[in-house]
Amino acid sequence: SQQGEEDPQALSIQEGENATMNCSYKTSINNLQWYRQNSGRGLVHLILIRSNEREKHSGRLRVTLDTSKKSSSLLITASRAADTASYFCATDIWNTDKLIFGTGTRLQVFP
Amino acid sequence: EPEVTQTPSHQVTQMGQEVILRCVPISNHLYFYWYRQILGQKVEFLVSFYNNEISEKSEIFDDQFSVERPDGSNFTLKIRSTKLEDSAMYFCASFSGPQETQYFGPGTRLLVL
To answer: What does the alpha-carbon distance between residue A88 and residue A45 come to, in Å, rounded to a whole number?
Structure first.
């Protein structure tokens, strides 16, 4: 399988609910970054977590990283309709600075 | 807040034509990247550029592609003879140093007919 796979591929929730997206990867990383993409638009950086960090918060976002399991999760609390977008994890692999993107999770938040 | 900008936002071209996509990275950044995203697919790395030379490139980045930093602010991607399969969204990214956040531009949507 590939470096950077997210699950679920698609997620539909109601406003106010929490959304959790998971990302798995295969090789050693320097850091892992989460990005958001509205349909057909650019990539907006959300949060970066380094390989020596286990958890990070930014507003309604909480990211965890488990390097032993090679996985990360992104939690969006109290979701809003405006959170509707695709969310990608991207790994900055050791010994290179290019980002390897996952397949993405399409989040739909219904008002 | 500083941001990466890209022009044009959309480009339509005929197969076999040359296109140049332009990017203005964040001013104090030293590392520059191009990525592309074919519709409905994941974002793919094309090339990285540091200290006025290519530092890494993917297998996608063949002889039809080239990058240049013609002056202190612009960073360009040229596709010499476009193919239908080059149709994609092309993203420029920059960052200040290793293991830091990569900031992406809004993208150029290229359509090759």
So the answer is: 10
- CB contacts, 8 Å: A92 with chain B: 99, 102
The helix (run of H) or strand (run of E) holding residue A4 is none
Which residues neighbour A90 within 8 Å (Cβ) at sequence distance 6 or greater?
Answer: A4, A32, A33, A34, A35, A99, A100, A101, A102, B43, B102
* A67: CB partners within 8 A, 6+ apart: A29, A51
Using CB atoms, which residue from B93, B98, B106 is nearest to A41? B106
A chain contacts of residue B93, beta-carbon cutoff 8 Å: 99
Q: d(Cα A26, Cα A2) in Å, to the nearest integer?
A: 7
pLDDT in tens, A16-54: 999 999 999 998 888 999 999 998 788 999 999 999 999
